[in-house]
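Write out structure tokens for Protein BTG1.
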Amino acid sequence: APAGAAMRTEISTAAAFVTRLLRAAGGIGEEQLRCFRECLQEALREHYKHHWFPLVPSKGSGYRCIRINHKMDPLVGKAAGMIGLSHERLFQLLPSELTLWVDPFEVSYRIGEDGSICVLYESPQPGGKTTKPLESRTSCKEEWRIGRSSPSKNYNMMTVSS
């Protein structure tokens, strides 16, 4: 299958999650939210097109990582601009520290620098390989974790309703 088809679930999971955060903040109409979600999916698809490696899921993870800290993630900012939301408004609506990893077979996020990583979507990798243990992940998850004294204690599973 072309990468686009392969990435569909991961991308729609990620876009739906950010949309859900915006909806929870309130004050944005459903029509705008729907448009935001579609714009974000499109932006992610375009951005990830040549950076999706199902055989090496962690490869390119840093490139695909969606991050909001003191600056707005450009892809989220672009989708928000399509529905007339300024970066300032986005910073008010979304968590001030959000990291979202969109990798083949797994979408996870963390809110806050020391928050625990929660999995939004996980699917077994083809070939029956079980998911790698957390320690062996060298992706952008690792970089942010280096030098932190408090290890993430709980690893919450969150189910996603589309």
